Amino acid sequence: MFKFLHPRDEIIEIINRIYQNGMTTTSGGNLSILDDDGSIWITPKGIDKGSLIPKNIVRVLPNGTVDGIHEPSSELPFHIAIYKARRDIKAIVHAHPPALVSFAITRKIPDTRIVPKASEICGKVGYAKYALPGSNALGAVIASVFESGHDTVLMENHGIVTVGNSLFHAFQKLETLDFCARLTLKANILGEVKVLSNQELELSRKEIFLDEFEHTSPSSKEKELRKKIISLIHRSYSQNLVTSTEGTFSARVNDDEFIITPWGMDRKYLSEEDLVLIKNNKREAGKKPSRSVGLHREIYRNHTFINAILIAHPPNILAFGVCDKKFDTRTIPESYLVLREIPKIPYGAELGKSEQDLSSITNLISENTPIILCENDCIIVTGSSLLQSYDRLEVAEFSAKSVIASKAIGEVVPINKSEIDELEKAFGI
Ligand SMILES: [Zn+2]
After folding, report:
1. 275 CA to middle of ligand 1, Å?
2. Does pLDDT of 345 surpass 90?
3. Do 268 and 416 fall into the same domain?
4. Cα–ligand 1 centroid distance for 324 (angstroms)
5. Which one, out of 14, 19, 171, 222, has a CA that is 20 to 30 A from the CA of 367?
6. How far is the CA of 165 from the centre of ligand 1 (A)?
7. Distance from the CA of 328 to the center of ligand 1, in angstroms?
8. What pairs with residue 382 in β-bridges?
9. What is the mean pLDDT of residues 135-164?
10. How far is the CA of 30 from the centre of ligand 1 (A)?
């Protein structure tokens, strides 16, 4: 996506994503890219981050000359210090996202072992002591933490800096750590937070091997489903139900065919052609399906009433997945009717290491149990159509959000047994 973008345009693209995701204010944060000739392209000082355009981006030449209509960001000294300290770094993102600032001001580091892929993406998170913004001293402190091998650094009483060999990779670290921070803050309101052991983290690093087939003539039904999946995955990205590279949606085309999202591609820009058709357990030639493809296949194979499966990581419902509390769906009639029971299963089975793991999940799913929460990982939502599954995903996230917010004002009073009986009777479930 970014390969042929000019650094100015790349910076605008990513700053817009950061601003739209609520991870920076108009004045806070700055981004830069190191060009091959040693120039640094950087966001300007004091210009509204919500309405930047390419010509606002400033170029600082290797000899220090500034080329542009604005002054460079006041944090230019620490960007220069980081590029000097590590030759492999090509881009830097700095911001003050509220959840990460909560950690910065309590002087704590978010634990990325709360979900499997976060530690893979962010690496070990470093910690930089406070120093005056814009000062060379701050540059020296931060650069020394990056020099010791960290790619993600929490700044004491300030914010976060991430780096990468591209701006997207730096952004991905920011987005992922912010997700861990939001998840941890929410889960701590509920109960005791559990993190994964190194052994458990290793389990998730698995490659998928499927034979290929040449896909020559997609049916109209398949084309229609591709369009629907893309529209929903874009919507779910803007609603924070999935992150840029996490979240797997699939839809059944017929008995032994389904379409699934690809592995590792940015969800924001996915298009119909990126989706992968799986037919008789073979993958469309040249494409890599999501690593959970085996689980999707087993669910479709065993449940003919299921036509769409969504695996997502919404922070509110997942907060129940990373702590010791159960999510009770008896909050309002809509929640109980749409969600029914949501069982929580121990971490690991959803990774599908064995046939036994896959059948343990498949056997748990039924028309009365369409959703499963997987500890420290994800939520699996099934339905008879993409829209029904998507509605269930949204209702689960909204309901969990209400329960977490309600902790500030009192104890939740669930709908009682006789009211549930009455609901079940009235709605024929
Ligand atoms: Zn700052």
Report:
1. 38
2. yes
3. yes
4. 35
5. 222
6. 21
7. 40
8. 309
9. 96
10. 7
Distance 133 CA to ligand 1 centre (A): 7
Whole-number Å distance, alpha carbon 126 to ligand 1 midpoint, is 16
The Å distance, Cα 134 to ligand 1 centre, comes to 9
206 domain residue, yes or no: no
68: its two tokens: 């542009």
Domain count, the chain: 2
pLDDT in tens, 22-53: 888 877 889 999 999 999 999 999 888 778 89
Task: State whether 176 and 216 are in the same domain.
Answer: no
Residue type, 55: K
Predicted pLDDT at 285: 95
Q: Side by side, which strands form the sheet with 282-284? A: 212-213, 282-284, 276-279, 257-260, 248-254, 308-312, 378-383, 371-374, 344-345
Range of the domain at 126: 7-190
Tell how far the Cα of 210 is from the centroid of ligand 1, in angstroms.
Answer: 46
One domain, residues 150 and 115: yes
Residues with CB under 5 A from ligand 1 (ion): 159
Query: For residue 137, is pLDDT > 70?
Result: yes
Closest by CA position to 164, among listed 377, 10, 8:
10
Mean pLDDT of the 135-153 span: 95
CATH of the domain at 346: 3.40.225.10
Residue 353 and residue 338: Cα distance in Å, rounded?
A: 30
Q: Are residues 278 and 356 in the same domain?
A: yes
